[in-house]
Specification:
The complex is a heterodimer. Chain A contains 13 helices and eleven strands. Chain A is of the alpha/beta class. Chain A has two domains: about 160 residues, D-Maltodextrin-Binding Protein, domain 2 (3-Layer(aba) Sandwich); about 150 residues, D-Maltodextrin-Binding Protein, domain 2, CATH 3.40.190. In chain A, the strands form three sheets. In chain A, strands 5, 6, 7, 8, 9 and 10 form a six-stranded mixed sheet that branches. In chain A, α7 runs parallel beside α13. Chain B is built from twelve helices and no strands. In chain B, α3 runs parallel beside α6. Chain B is globular and about 75 Å long. The relative contact order of chain B is 0.13. Classes of the chains: A alpha/beta, B mainly alpha. Chains A and B meet through α1, β1, β2, α3 and α8 of A and α5, α6, α9 and α10 of B.
C-alpha cells in the first residue's frame, strides 16, 4: 500500500517538474510557432520578420502532409501557423481542426491572385480558413534532344518509341492522376469502373516505364538518363536551369494544380501574431524572396517586380499565366474508403508483371 | 579455387557495405548540388555546413541527447539489472519479459504512446521530452547487454567481500562492477547509437523548433537533401572511424601492460 502511494506521489510530481523545464525564449512581442514543409522558406525572411516586429518565430518543419496531421490533431505542440496542401486542408476542416482567419488583420492578403482564392474554394468553400502560399502544376519534363515530336498530351507516356525512357511518379494519387487525365476522367474520381480502367492503362504502360521514382526525377533528367518524366513545375524550373535541353509542359487534357496554404489550428495560442506573420508573407517583396529560394510559384501578385535573379526573370517557366491552367484541378480528400481503394488498385499496378 | 571464391565473396560484401558511403563522401566534394552533374572538386559544402545555424543546433541536440540519454539509461538499466538478478526465478522472468516488449514493439507505437502520455500530463514538448523518450527506449538495450555479464558473475565473491567487512555498496563497486563493466560499456555505446539513429520516436515527442539530425534530414526529403548533409555525414563517418581506431589500439599494447 505504501509503495503504491509513493508511486502515485511521484507520478503526480513529475509533470510539475517537467512543465517548468520547457521554457522558450520569447521576443519582446511574444512569439509565433510555425510548422512548415522542410526547406520551404528563406531563412532570411524569418530574421526580417523578427527584426521588424519583435515577434520571435519558433520554426518547425514536417516532411509530408500525412506526418503533419497526427501531430496537429493530437495537439502535442500548439502550432500557430501550419502549411498543409489542398486536400489535407479539406480533411482538417472536416475534422474541425482549423480556426477562422480574421482577414481585417491581414491587408496584404488582397495581393493573392483571385484565381487562387477561386481554386481554394475546392477545399475551403468560403475562403475563410486558408491563405495560399505556394502553387504549382504537375506535367511532363522532356529532353528536347531525345524527343522529336511536340509534347502536349499525356499520350506520349504510352508511346512505344520511348520504352525505358519514361519516369513516372511513385505515389498513388500522382500516378492515377496521369491515367485518369489521359482517359478524360476527373482526377478525384471515385467511380469504380473509371478507376479500373485507369488501373489497366497504368498496367499497360508499365513495360515502357524506366522507373517509378519520387525526387530522383530531378537528377535523372538533368543527367539525361531519361527522355520524359512526370514532375512538379517548381522542380522543372530547377532542372531546366541545370540542363537547358529540358522543357516542361502541362498536357492539354488537364492535370493536377496544387496549392499549399497557410491555416491556423484551433488550439493556436498566438493567433494574432500568426496573422501578422501570414500578412508579412503576402507582401510581394517577401514573397519574391521565398520564390527565389524555393522556386515554386507564388500566388502573390506583383512578385516579379521584386525578383532579382536574372535567370528566373528570363525563364519562360518561372512566371506562367495561371489562367491557362483553368482545366487543372486540385486533389480532394476522398475519404478513408476511397483512399483504401486507391491503395489497393495501386498495389495491383505495382505487382503486375513482376513475375516475368 | 575455393580461396578465390572466398576472396570474391568477401570483396562483394565490402563493396555492398561501403560503396554507398564512399559515394556519399565523393558527392560531398561535388561543386554542384546535383548528383548527376560534377562541377569539380570543392569544399564549399563544408564551409556552408559550419555556417548553417540550423544544422549546427541539430547536431548539438543530437549529440547532447545521445550522450545524456545513454548516461541515464546506463545508470538506470544497470540498477534494474541488479534488482532483477536478485529476484526469484518466476518474477525475474516476468520482469525480463516486460523490459523486452518495448524492443520488439514497433517504434511508431512507442512514439505515439509517449506523445499521448506527455499530452496527458500537460508536459511542454521540447528538448526534455526527446531526452525522456530516448532514455525510455534505451533502458531495455542496457539491460540486454548487462544482464548476461551479471549472470556470469559468481555470487560467492560478492558474499566473500561482505564477509571481509565491505559494505554492500563497496562490495558491489569493488567486486561485481569490474566484472560487468564491459557489458555496461557496450550498453552505453549501444544506447548512444540507438539514440543517434532514432527518427520515429523523436518525431512524435519533439517540440517546435527543436530538431535532431534525423528529423532535420528527413524534413529535407521533399525538396531534395542538401549537400551540406553529405559533408556532415562524411565528417561523422570519419570521426567514428578514428574513434574505433583509437579504441582498438590499446588491445595491441596489452601484453606490455602485463609485463609491468
Amino acid at each position: 500500500m505504501k509503495k503504491v502511494l509513493t508511486a502515485i506521489l511521484i507520478m503526480a510530481l513529475i509533470p510539475g517538474i517537467l512543465a517548468g523545464c520547457g521554457s522558450k525564449s520569447e521576443g519582446s512581442n511574444g512569439k509565433v510557432v510555425v510548422y512548415n514543409w522542410g526547406e520551404y522558406m528563406d531563412p532570411d525572411v524569418l530574421t526580417l520578420f523578427e527584426e521588424e516586429t519583435g515577434i520571435k518565430v519558433v520554426y518547425d518543419e514536417f516532411e509530408t502532409n500525412e506526418i503533419m496531421y497526427p501531430k496537429v490533431d493530437a495537439g502535442a505542440v500548439a502550432y500557430d501557423l501550419v502549411c498543409p496542401s489542398d486536400y489535407m486542408i479539406q480533411k482538417m476542416l472536416e475534422n474541425d481542426l482549423l480556426a477562422e482567419l480574421n482577414f481585417d488583420n491581414m491587408p496584404n492578403t488582397k495581393n493573392i491572385g483571385s484565381m487562387f482564392m477561386e481554386k481554394s474554394k475546392e477545399f475551403d468553400p468560403e475562403n475563410k480558413y486558408s491563405v495560399p502560399y505556394m502553387w504549382g502544376t504537375v506535367g511532363i519534363l522532356y529532353n528536347k534532344t531525345m524527343v522529336s515530336e511536340p509534347v502536349d498530351s499525356w499520350d506520349i507516356l504510352w508511346d512505344e518509341k520511348y520504352k525505358d525512357n519514361i519516369l513516372m511518379q511513385n505515389s498513388v494519387r500522382d500516378a492515377f492522376m496521369v491515367a485518369l487525365s489521359r482517359l478524360g476522367y476527373s482526377i478525384n474520381s471515385t467511380d469504380e469502373a473509371e478507376l479500373q480502367e485507369a488501373k489497366q492503362t497504368l498496367i499497360d504502360q508499365k513495360p515502357l516505364v524506366q522507373a517509378y521514382v519520387i525526387d530522383q526525377v530531378r537528377d535523372k533528367m538533368i543527367g539525361g538518363e531519361a527522355a520524359l518524366g512526370v514532375i512538379y513545375s517548381g522542380e522543372a524550373l530547377v532542372c531546366q536551369q541545370q540542363n537547358p535541353d529540358l522543357d516542361y509542359v502541362v498536357p492539354k487534357e488537364g492535370s493536377n494544380i496544387w496549392i499549399d496554404s497557410w491555416v491556423i489550428p484551433k488550439n493556436a495560442e498566438n493567433k494574432e501574431n500568426a496573422e501578422k506573420f501570414l500578412d508579412f508573407l503576402c507582401r510581394p517583396d517577401i514573397a519574391a524572396k521565398n520564390f527565389e529560394y524555393i522556386t515554386y510559384y507564388s500566388p502573390v501578385e506583383g512578385v516579379k517586380e521584386y525578383v532579382e535573379d536574372e535567370y528566373l526573370l528570363n525563364s519562360p517557366l518561372a512566371f506562367p499565366d495561371p489562367e491557362q491552367y483553368t482545366n487543372c484541378t486540385t486533389f480532394h480528400y476522398l475519404g478513408e474508403e476511397a483512399d483504401e481503394y486507391y491503395n489497393e488498385i495501386w498495389r495491383e499496378v505495382q505487382a503486375a508483371g513482376t513475375s516475368e | 579455387m575455393k580461396k578465390t571464391a572466398q576472396r570474391i565473396y568477401l570483396a562483394l560484401i565490402f563493396v555492398f557495405l561501403y560503396a554507398p558511403i564512399v559515394t556519399l563522401m565523393v558527392l560531398s566534394f561535388n561543386g554542384s548540388k546535383f548528383r548527376t552533374k560534377w562541377d569539380g572538386f570543392s569544399t564549399k559544402w563544408y564551409v556552408q555546413l559550419f555556417r548553417n545555424e540550423q544544422i549546427m543546433s541539430a547536431l548539438y541536440n543530437t549529440l547532447a541527447i545521445g550522450l545524456l540519454s545513454a548516461l541515464f539509461a546506463t545508470v538506470l538499466g544497470t540498477a534494474a539489472c541488479i534488482g532483477i538478478h536478485a529476484m526469484k526465478k518466476k518474477s525475474r522472468m516476468v520482469w525480463m519479459g516486460i523490459t523486452n516488449i518495448p524492443m520488439l514493439n514497433a517504434e511508431i507505437v512507442t512514439g505515439i504512446s509517449l506523445m499521448l502520455l506527455f499530452i496527458a500530463f500537460g508536459v511542454n514538448f521540447g528538448f526534455m521530452t526527446i531526452l525522456l523518450g530516448h532514455i525510455t527506449f534505451n533502458i531495455p538495450y542496457v539491460i540486454l547487454s548487462v544482464m548476461p555479464k551479471l549472470r556470469q558473475t559468481d555470487k560467492a565473491t560478492y558474499e566473500a567481500a561482505m564477509d571481509l567487512g565491505a559494505s554492500p555498496v563497496k562490495a558491489f563497486f569493488k567486486v561485481v562492477f569490474p566484472d560487468i563493466l564491459p557489458g555496461v560499456l557496450s550498453g552505453f555505446l549501444l544506447s548512444f547509437t540507438m539514440s543517434l539513429d532514432d527518427f520515429v520516436i523523436t518525431h512524435f515527442v519533439k517540440g517546435a523548433g527543436v530538431d535532431t539530425l534525423s528529423t532535420k534530414i528527413y524534413a529535407e526529403v521533399r525538396k531534395g537533401i542538401k549537400p551540406e548533409m553529405y559533408a556532415l555525414s562524411t565528417i561523422m563517418f570519419v570521426s567514428v572511424l578514428l574513434l574505433l581506431l583509437i579504441i582498438n589500439r590499446p588491445s595491441r599494447k596489452k601484453p606490455q601492460k602485463s609485463a609491468v
